[in-house]
Amino acid sequence: MQIQVVKSKIHRVKVTGADLNYIGSITIDEDLMDAANIIEGEKLQIVNNNNGERLETYAIPGKRGSGEIILNGAAARKVAAGDIVILMSYAWMDIDEAKNFKPALVFPNEETNLIK
Predict the structure, then answer these.
(1) Residue 76 in contact with residue 53, Cβ under 8 Å?
(2) Phi, psi of 26 (to 5 degrees)
(3) Average pLDDT in the 25-33 region?
(4) Which of 15, 64, 74, 104 has the most CB atoms in a 10 Å sphere around its CB?
(5) How many percent of the chain have pLDDT more than 90?
(6) Distances in Å between the alpha carbon of 59 and those of 25, 29, 37?
(7) CB atoms within 10 A of CB 36
(8) Measuring CA to CA, which residue among 72, 63, 61 is closest to residue 38?
(9) Structure pTM?
């Protein structure tokens, strides 16, 4: 049997922008992506702590050390600059593997989005 478990989580980052006219995705500081073991194109769930919105999109790398978190395309309607979001990805694995698996959890500075 396989189950889906949290693989990566970037906990409580501040949205720095929303670009409705971009072709979808979320732009994430590449340092945050590396720390959370998230790769370009990976499907992400985004939870907006300010308004309760939940959505799915895919990751694209942003400038390293910039702290940028930008929702693009239709997702831009679900956030506002300054909102606090949680980013999560999931992986399928055998239940025995899942029992010992440790997800990559990142808790950046909430003001700068940089890794503490």
Answers:
(1) no
(2) -130, 130
(3) 97
(4) 15
(5) 96
(6) 6, 10, 11
(7) 26
(8) 61
(9) 0.95
Band (24; pLDDT cuts 50, 70, 90): confident
Measured CA to CA, the distance from residue 102 to residue 112 in angstroms comes to 26
Q: Which residues contact 7 (CB under 8 A, 6 or more apart)?
A: 37, 89, 90, 91, 103, 104
The answer to whether residue 41 scores a pLDDT higher than 90 is: yes
Instruction: Taking residues 52-58, report their average pLDDT.
Output: 97
> pLDDT at residue 38 above 90?
yes
The amino acid occupying position 51 is N
Q: What does the block give as tokens for 97?
A: 């593997």
Domains and CATH numbers, the chain: 2-92 (2.40.40.20)
Phi, psi of 4 (to 5 degrees): -100, 130
